[in-house]
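FIELD: query
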Amino acid sequence: MKKDIHGEYFDDAVMTCACGAKYTVGSTQKEINVEICSACHPFYTGQDKVLDTAGRVDRFKKKVAATAVKKAAKKA
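FIELD: result
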């Protein structure tokens, strides 16, 4: 194996989630920030939770509502 090509490994690296959960993991980075972890992921918690980035869910709901209004006006 070649020497001096591998990054420094930290046994006590801290991973922080947006929900506030903190974990100690092994990594080549000292600090890791993530948006979702096993404490808040819907698959693991069993709760249905929508992760909205940049208002995508709201825009989708507006489009669906506008389409429903157009269909109702077309039928009448």
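FIELD: remark
The first strand starts at residue 10 and ends at 17.
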